[in-house]
Amino acid sequence: MNAQLFTLAESLVPSSYIRQARDARRSRESLLATLLSQRRLPRSGWDRATLMLALHELAALDSNTFVGNAGVGEREGRVVCPI
Fold first, then answer.
1. What CA–CA distance (Å, rounded) separates 69 from 83?
2. Higher pLDDT, 42 or 82
3. Closest to 1 measured CA to CA, from 53, 69, 36
4. What are the tens digits of pLDDT across the range 54-82?
5. Rounded distance, CA 33 to CA 53, Å?
6. Is 60 exceeded by the pLDDT of residue 83?
7. Do 41 and 35 touch, CB atoms closer than 8 A?
8. Is 66 helix (H, G, I), strand (E, B) or coil?
């Protein structure tokens, strides 16, 4: 979540919970940033939530997952064309 979404969430949830959630998110994002900047696996394993966040963030970079986008290329064409 970006800062604007956390701010909007404060109208639904007490700010103390939002602050905790923001800190947890930053901590997980910091682990991902370290992985990407150092380009090597961390010495200690990540918990499930951190792994899932990393996978979702990386999957979001794929243009086939953009909202409203339908990728059409060679792989998709093989479904329609028996070549």
1. 25
2. 42
3. 53
4. 999 998 888 776 777 766 666 655 555 55
5. 12
6. no
7. yes
8. coil
The verdict on pTM exceeding 0.85 is: no
| Residue labelled with tokens 């696996």 | 41
Measured between alpha carbons, how far is residue 21 from residues 39, 56, 58 in Å?
27, 17, 21
∠ CA 21-55-28, nearest 5°, is 30
| Rounded Cα–Cα distance for residues 64 and 52 (Å) | 19
The four Cα atoms 28, 68, 7, 31 give a dihedral, to 10 degrees, of 10
Neighbours of 50 (CB within 10 A): 18
**Amino acid 15: pLDDT:** 94
The vertex-12 CA angle with 11 and 15, nearest 5°, equals 70
Over the stretch 3-26, which tens digit does the pLDDT of each residue have?
Answer: 999 999 999 999 999 999 999 999
Number of Cβ within a 10 Å radius of residue 18:
19
